[in-house]
Amino acid sequence: MYIELKNIEKSFGNYKACDCINLSISKGTLAALLGPSGSGKTTLLRMIAGFITPDAGDININEKRVNDTKVYDRGIGFVFQNYALFRYMTVYENIAFGLKVKKIPKRQIRDRVMDLMELTGLKGMEKRYPSQMSGGQRQRVAFARALAPNPSLLLLDEPFAAIDAKVRQELRFWLKDMIHKVGITSIFVTHDQDEAVEVADEIIVTSNGRIEQTGNPLEIYKNPKTKFVAEFIGQSERIPDFHRLKGFEKRGFDGAVIRPEFVETFKSDNEKFQDVLPYSEEGIVEEVSFLGTCLKVRLRVNGIHLTTHRSLERRPVSVGETMHVIVYRIYAYKGEKAYYMENSLLEGKEIVTF
Question: 24 with 168, same domain?
Fold first, then answer.
């Protein structure tokens, strides 16, 4: 493994930011540290960088323990949340800064800077100042500056937080493409699950100073191992009395997490659902919201509130309308562990969702 954290502990007064963290990341991986505020993800990133020293444990980079290695000797490029560009320096001077500090010959500096400007789509902007650029362009400058000294590891602290939504979407794909082209091992911090799923090769979910689960985006989304991950990923709802829904038994579980895509609604005259009509139950529509690509429908079924998404191509529904409802899977939890569970009445039945 290229990066290994072993039994890492870090506290700030009575607050435990990292509690016995063990983590491995392979060379060339683009990893996301994903979690809510205060979950320890930024502390982990800054300890890897060398800005913070762990209270206990070992940080290894490329099989070398770096706990006592200075920041500038770790071979790390760091992109700060606020970019931290030098506002009185041009784009060229910002990117060249780290190379000048290392006393690289001027000709090599120029070649490296121009190559990076070409790579990051900044060609022709070398004489501009940060104040003359958009947020997305400044982010690219920060990225190019971090890459200039040829670091072996790139760390990014919430790299899209200060950028508006449309540009953020474009930069996600741009960043993933650039990092894979360069082939550098990278870790970025985010609290945005969509960002992590779209960009990362591997997601590390953190909560209360601990790692809840590690895996690729599909694995994290489809197979949450803990109650926290099941709730945090996706638009999930916690349903303590899930056993009141048809096809599910409590069987010692404490409750369940149900996502909108696990809930299907239909009218009794819909031919596509006739085979499963006997296994459905009635629900009353309480709220309908337009999300742009679909309708968000909230219903009450046996006193339980459920949410589903309804395609704009289907017949609209109204508040107060009665619908047939089927929940065909859940994540049941016992303690902190989560378990995938299918509706027992639907075994061998095909649910046509659209």
Answer: yes
